[in-house]
Every structure is written in structure tokens, then in C-alpha cells.
Inverse folding.
């Protein structure tokens, strides 16, 4: 079994991204659309050809990935309350179409407090199989230590929903550690903490896990640092697809100088442990 804890419902293939960037001025494209377009057009690590949930599942099949957590790009980078609602519908439609393959992740934002609570309520309809987030707090301009954010995350924790946090810059780790301390019952999965200069600060924060989405851009020393400070039981396989190509990350994990049992921990067991589940649950 392999579970990818970090994917997004694809919005653009390489061809579509090229057409968007050539036809629409940069200032008229929302940040995530521009980001995905640029990656799909310019980044050789992932010449994406996938455009929908069906294509995502076909991509998973090609890599031998059993299941994947899916988020909505619109909801993750929401600029208005409707983005959260529309994103939740998008995620639920995909999960309904592929219930054995896709695991829902519902976005929240403290500026839309009541709607965020509704997203948590929606997630509870998938007991033991749903997450909250990812919260792109750094680029969206809100703090993880604000009262509204802490309250939303606390309610997610009380509903036994792991919370995903997306980090772009190492300095954002301070807020993550503070939040994890403020909500000790919570389980937090950091997406894309790959640069690795601050893994040591997570060593004693036992309710934080990290995924592997940035590993293609790191050195072997970074993997060693992650394993040293977190151990193989707090690293979770995640690709960030369609931004990055999963086969590269799988290759890195399989080549790690650790026992096969620890590779299995990273590839799926640690994710199941977020829900205190076993393989056959």
C-alpha cells in the first residue's frame, strides 16, 4: 500500500497551462492558477498531462499509489467565502466518484469563521478518512496564533480531524510549533517542509508530522536530518501533485538507507496512524 497525503485536484494540463499563460495577463490570474500554470509549462520535474479526478486516479495507478488525499486549489487559495464552498463541492464530487481511491481534505480560513466550521462539519461525515486544510497561512496573510484560527483548529482536533499546514518559508515554523502547543490534542501535518533547516525544532513537538513533497529539491543530508530529528514514524509520503511528479519522490524514499519496514512507515503506515488506524481498517 502507498498513500499520497498531498495532492490537489488537477486544474491544468501542460497544454492548457500554456494556453492560459499566453492568453491572459499575469495580473488577471489568481496566484495559484499562475503558479500551477508556470510549473506545468516551465518545470521539467512535472510535465503534467492530467486535468481531472479521473486523470489523477490514472496517474496514481501508474505509480502504484493506492490512495491519495485531495484538496481543491480554489479552496486552498480562497479569496472569498464562496471559494471554500465551491472547493468542498469539488472535493466531495471527486471522492464520491472514486471513494476507494481519494481521501477528502477540506479547507478553512479564519476570515470565514462560520463557513470554516461548516467545512469541519462536512469533514466529520467521513469518520477516520478526512482532513482539514492545507492552510496556506503565510501567503494568505493570517496567523496561526490568532484566536479565530486557534478556535477553528481546536474544533477540528475535537472532531479527530488532522490539520494540514502548508509552509513556504522556514520562519513560518515558529507559528506551527506555537499552534501545536496551544492545541495539544491536534495532529498537524506540515506540507512541503523540505528545505530542512529547522527539523530539529520539531523534535520534541510530538503532534507534528511532515510530508515529503519538497524532497526532490533537497540533498541527501536533508533526508538524513529529517530522519535524525523526526524519525521514520513522523515522515509521511506526499507529492504535491500536480505541482511535482510523484515518481521522483518514490525513488528517493526507496533509495533511503533505512530498513524496508521504515520505508513502509513513510509510505502509508504513518498516515494511517494519524487516525489510529491499521492497514485493513
Amino acid at each position: 500500500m502507498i498513500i499520497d497525503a498531498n495532492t490537489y485536484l488537477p486544474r491544468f494540463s501542460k497544454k492548457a497551462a500554456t494556453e492560459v499563460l499566453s492568453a491572459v495577463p499575469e495580473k488577471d490570474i489568481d496566484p495559484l492558477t499562475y503558479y500551477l500554470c508556470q510549473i506545468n509549462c516551465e518545470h521539467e520535474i512535472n510535465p503534467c498531462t492530467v486535468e481531472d479526478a479521473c486523470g489523477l486516479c490514472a496517474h496514481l495507478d501508474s505509480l502504484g499509489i493506492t490512495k491519495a488525499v485531495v484538496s481543491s486549489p480554489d479552496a486552498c487559495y480562497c479569496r472569498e467565502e464562496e471559494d471554500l464552498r465551491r472547493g468542498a463541492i469539488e472535493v466531495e464530487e471527486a471522492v464520491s466518484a472514486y471513494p476507494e481511491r481519494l481521501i477528502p481534505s477540506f479547507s478553512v480560513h479564519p476570515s470565514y469563521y462560520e463557513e470554516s466550521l461548516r467545512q469541519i462539519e462536512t469533514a466529520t461525515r467521513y469518520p477516520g478518512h478526512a482532513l482539514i486544510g492545507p492552510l496556506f497561512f503565510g501567503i494568505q496573510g493570517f496567523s496561526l496564533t490568532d484566536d479565530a484560527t486557534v478556535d477553528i483548529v481546536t474544533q477540528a482536533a475535537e472532531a479527530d480531524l488532522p490539520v494540514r499546514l502548508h509552509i513556504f518559508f522556514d520562519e513560518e515554523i515558529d507559528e506551527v510549533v506555537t499552534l501545536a502547543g496551544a492545541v495539544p490534542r491536534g495532529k498537524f501535518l506540515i506540507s512541503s517542509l523540505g528545505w530542512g533547516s529547522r527539523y530539529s525544532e520539531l523534535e520534541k513537538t510530538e503532534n507534528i508530522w511532515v510530508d515529503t513533497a519538497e524532497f526532490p529539491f533537497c540533498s541527501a543530508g536533508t533526508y538524513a536530518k529529517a530522519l535524525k530529528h523526526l524519525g521514520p514514524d513522523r515522515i509521511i509520503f506526499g507529492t504535491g501533485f500536480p505541482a511535482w511528479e510523484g515518481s521522483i519522490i518514490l525513488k528517493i524514499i526507496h533509495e533511503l538507507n533505512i530498513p524496508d519496514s521504515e520505508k513502509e512507515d513513510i509510505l502509508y503506515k504513518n498516515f494511517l496512524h494519524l487516525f489510529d488506524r491499521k492497514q485493513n481498517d
Observations:
- Residues 3-273 form a domain with the TIM Barrel fold (CATH 3.20.20.140).
- Residues 233 and 273 are 9 Å apart (CA to CA).
- The radius of gyration is 17 Å.
- Strands lie at 3-8, 67-71, 102-106, 131-135, 163-166, 188-191, 208-211, 235-236.
